[in-house]
Amino acid sequence: MVEPVLKGLLPPRRLSSQTGLREVMAKFATGITVLTAGGESGHGMTANAFSSVSLEPPMVLCCVSRAARMHSAIEAAGSFGVTILGSGQRELSKYFADWRRPGGLAQFDDVDCTFGKHTGAPLLNGALAWLECRLAHAYEGGDHTIFVGEVLSASRGTAQDALVFYGGGYHDIEPRARQSA
């Protein structure tokens, strides 16, 4: 039986260890994105905590640690870009996950990107798709913030195959021809 947490009567239950949660979540395959913000606090970050929320109005969400530089960059810009990576972009995923890369917009100096016309966020070329979003809502979620963005523009790229993260590693996913039932 699941007991509800009501007005602090029952303490929230926690998993015994972060390692346990990481092991379980490693069994959930996700696409890989690079979140970006433009402006003076411009920044980029690899993320797989990303999802569609609504088609009407068009909205997506991303989850960002409050300790991450990306958190303050999204807040400062009031917007964010999303690049959905293709299979040939493994190194870009690793680059934007490396905390040792340069800060600010300097981290894009050697990256093939285009700055979004609605947000000024860098969008990485050669990807599966891109989104530009206006920050619509921000919700606390543990040690992360759930940023909900209203999609201002969405476009598809030339990449054909997806880059996926599963079981602690990268995998390339090729589209299959649809089979009729």
Could you walk me through the main structural features you see in this protein, from its secondary elements to its overall organization?
- The protein has 181 residues and is mainly beta.
- It has a domain at 30-49 and 69-136 and 153-166: Electron Transport, Fmn-binding Protein, Chain A (Pnp Oxidase, Chain A, Roll).
- Helix content is 14%, strand content 41%.
- It has helices at residues 18-25, 69-77, 90-97; strands at 30-31, 33-37, 43-47, 50-55, 58-65, 79-84, 113-115, 122-124, 129-141, 144-156, 162-166, 169-173.
- A hairpin with a 6-residue loop joins strand 7 and strand 8.
- The model is unreliable at 1-16 (pLDDT under 50).
Q: In order across it, which strands form the biggest sheet? A: 3-2-6-9-10-5-4
- The proportion of residues forming helix, as a percent range, comes to 10-25%
As a percent range, the share of strand residues is 35-45%
Q: Report the major sheet.
A: 7 strands, antiparallel
Structural class: mainly beta
The first-level CATH class name of the domain at 30-49 and 69-136 and 153-166: Mainly Beta
